């Protein structure tokens, strides 16, 4: 399978990242609400534990949407997807000393980690949109960490809105592509 076909299969299967980013964006918004109207502990616990369920919830939503084509066994990018999935949880221990230093830096630091986590998605999906998403999240994390030092929730609200917006953008890119011919690996078998 050619790289371009593997990328297109990923875009088609995961709707340009729509459901993953939608779930992630919703999680950030819930966490932001908790940071605003509840406690920092509730907000941080929600995003850390909830983050473990992003992929399973994404898969559930894909199944609820209807029959989705499974990735081909010869799609080498499925292994890259698994590796990318573990980058974020393995880097999250960095957040503990950051939050101990200044609690209001937790969400900005997480935004930077999440933004960096999206960089390999550019290759995984073959979509430059993920580079823009990474830059917006990293820039938002840096900005909120430097200039909104009194707010725990500002970065979380921003990240949630950005993720939901880019979910819609990714879906529209994938939908535009499916209006054209599907990749050879996704075409129905002919008898």
Helices and strands, in order, run as: HHHHHHHHHH
* Alpha-carbon distance between the two ends: 22 Å
**Helix count from the secondary structure assignment:** 10
- The figure for the number of domains is 1
Q: Are there runs of 5+ residues with pLDDT below 50, and where?
A: 187-191
Structural class designation:
mainly alpha
- The counted number of beta strands is 0
> What is the makeup of the main sheet?
none
Radius of gyration: 18 Å
- Kindly state the mean pLDDT as a whole number? 89
Task: Sum this structure up briefly.
This protein is mainly alpha-helical and 191 residues long. It has helices spanning 3-13, 18-37, 40-51, 54-65, 77-91, 95-101, 106-118, 121-125, 129-147, 154-178.
Explain what the structure shows:
With 191 residues, the protein is mostly helical. It has one domain. The protein has ten helices and no strands. α2 packs antiparallel against α10 and α5 runs antiparallel to α7. The longest helix has 25 residues.
């Amino acid at each position: 399978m050619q790289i371009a076909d593997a990328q297109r299969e990923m875009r088609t299967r995961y709707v340009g990242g729509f459901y993953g980013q939608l779930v992630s964006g919703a999680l950030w918004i819930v966490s932001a609400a908790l940071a605003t109207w509840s406690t920092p502990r509730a907000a941080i616990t929600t995003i850390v534990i909830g983050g473990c369920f992003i992929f399973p919830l994404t898969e559930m939503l894909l199944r609820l949407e209807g029959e989705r084509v499974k990735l081909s066994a010869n799609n080498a990018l499925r292994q890259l997807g698994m590796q990318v999935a573990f980058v974020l949880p393995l880097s999250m221990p960095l957040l503990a000393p950051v939050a101990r230093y200044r609690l209001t830096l937790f969400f900005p630091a997480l935004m930077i980690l999440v933004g960096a986590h999206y960089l390999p998605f550019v290759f995984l999906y073959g979509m430059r949109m993920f580079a823009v998403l990474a830059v917006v999240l990293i820039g938002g994390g840096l900005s909120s960490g430097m200039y909104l030092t009194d707010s725990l929730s500002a970065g979380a609200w921003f990240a949630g809105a950005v993720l939901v917006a880019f979910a819609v953008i990714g879906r529209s890119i994938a939908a535009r592509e499916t209006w054209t011919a599907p990749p050879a690996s996704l075409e129905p078998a002919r008898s």
